[in-house]
C-alpha cells in the first residue's frame, strides 16, 4: 500500500523489484550493499580457536573457530538461535568461554573482564541498538569513550558529528526519540568513540526500512575502507554475503561452512537454507 492505495502484489521477489515499490519505498533503487572490492585476509585481528560457551549448564557454542583479518569484513550468518549473538557476547566477555582461546592481535582475552576488552579495542554494537534512551545524542557519544583517558576525545566527538550529519543536527535531542535508523547510526558512532581495533555489529539492519538499510551498510563499508576490521552478524544473509569478504555459517552453535563470501553467495546449500 502507498497512501491507502495498493500499488503491487505478488511474491516477495516480485514486490521487491516492482518499479512502483522501488520508487515509493526504496528511494528509486533497490536496497542492497554498494559494490566494493573484496579484501584478502591480513594478519589476524581476532582469532577464536575451539571456543565453547553458554548460559548456566547449557553450551550454546560448541568448538567454534573463526578468524577476522586486518582490513576485512567477516560475516556470520545462521538461523535464529544458532548462537550468533552469543558468539559476539563471548568475544566481549559478557558470556564466559568454557573452553578454547580467544585472541585479539595475538593476546589472549578469554579471561578478561568486559571493560578490559573494550580497553583493548573491541567495540560491540548490540542487537536492538540499545542507545541510552533518556540521554542526549551527545551524552551517548561521550559514553562510548568512557574507557579512554586521552585528550583527543573531543576531536573524535567532532569527527563523529561530521561523519554522521543527522547526529550533528540532533546532538541535543533525547536519543529515545530518534528514528530507528538514526538510533542505529548513533549506536555505531558510539562504538567508534572507543577507537576500536575491531568493530562487531549485531543485526544492524533489524527493523529498518530498506532505504535506511542501504545507508547503514554504506556507512559500514566506509568505516571498513578507513581501516576498521568488522565482524558482522546479519539476519539478511544475502546482504551480509554481498558486503563481506569472508563468511561463516553457524548452525546450532557449530561452524558448518566457511569461505569467500562471493562463493557462499552462490553455494546451493546456503542458498536453499538462507537465501530463499
Automatic annotation (TrEMBL):
UniProt-listed InterPro entries: AAA+_ATPase, ABC_transporter-like_ATP-bd, ABC_transporter-like_CS, BCA_ABC_TP_C, BCAA_Transport_ATP-bd_LivF, P-loop_NTPase
Gene Ontology biological process: L-amino acid transport
Signal sequence region: none
Coiled coil ranges: none
Keyword Hydrolase: no
Chain ranges of the ABC transporter domain: 46-275
SMART domains in alphabetical order: AAA
Keywords associated with the record: Amino-acid transport, ATP-binding, Nucleotide-binding, Transport
Molecular functions (GO terms): ATP binding; ATP hydrolysis activity; branched-chain amino acid transmembrane transporter activity
Pfam family, one: ABC_tran
PANTHER family associated with the record: HIGH-AFFINITY BRANCHED-CHAIN AMINO ACID TRANSPORT ATP-BINDING PROTEIN LIVF (PTHR43820)
Homology family: Belongs to the ABC transporter superfamily.
Protein name, UniProt field: ATP-binding cassette domain-containing protein
Organism: Candidatus Segetimicrobium genomatis
Amino acid at each position: 500500500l502507498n497512501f491507502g492505495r495498493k500499488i503491487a502484489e505478488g511474491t516477495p521477489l516480485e514486490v521487491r523489484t516492482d518499479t512502483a515499490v522501488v520508487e515509493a519505498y526504496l528511494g528509486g533503487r533497490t536496497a542492497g550493499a554498494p559494490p566494493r572490492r573484496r579484501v584478502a585476509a591480513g594478519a589476524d585481528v581476532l582469532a577464536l580457536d575451539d571456543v565453547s560457551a553458554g548460559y548456566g549448564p547449557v553450551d550454546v557454542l560448541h568448538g567454534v573457530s573463526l578468524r577476522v583479518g586486518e582490513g576485512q569484513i567477516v560475516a556470520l550468518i545462521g538461523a535464529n538461535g544458532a548462537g550468533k549473538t552469543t558468539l559476539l557476547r563471548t568475544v566481549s566477555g559478557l558470556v564466559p568461554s568454557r573452553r578454547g582461546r580467544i585472541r585479539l592481535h595475538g593476546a589472549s582475552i578469554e579471561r578478561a573482564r568486559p571493560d578490559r576488552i573494550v580497553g583493548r579495542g573491541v567495540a560491540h554494537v548490540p542487537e536492538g541498538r540499545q542507545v541510552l534512551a533518556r540521554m542526549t545524542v551527545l551524552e551517548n557519544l561521550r559514553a562510548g569513550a568512557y574507557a579512554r583517558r586521552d585528550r583527543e576525545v573531543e576531536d573524535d566527538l567532532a569527527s563523529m558529528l561530521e561523519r554522521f550529519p543527522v547526529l550533528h543536527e540532533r546532538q541535543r535531542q533525547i536519543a529515545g526519540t530518534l528514528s530507528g535508523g538514526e538510533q542505529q547510526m548513533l549506536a555505531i558512532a558510539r562504538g567508534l568513540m572507543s577507537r576500536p581495533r575491531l568493530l562487531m555489529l549485531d543485526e544492524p539492519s533489524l527493523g529498518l526500512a530498506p532505504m535506511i538499510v542501504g545507508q547503514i551498510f554504506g556507512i559500514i563499508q566506509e568505516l571498513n575502507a578507513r581501516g576498521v576490521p568488522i565482524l558482522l552478524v546479519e539476519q539478511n544473509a544475502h546482504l551480509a554475503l554481498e558486503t563481506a569478504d569472508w563468511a561463516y555459517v553457524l548452525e546450532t552453535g557449530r561452524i558448518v561452512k566457511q569461505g569467500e563470501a562471493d562463493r557462499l553467495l552462490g553455494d546451493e546449500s546456503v542458498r536453499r537454507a538462507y537465501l530463499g
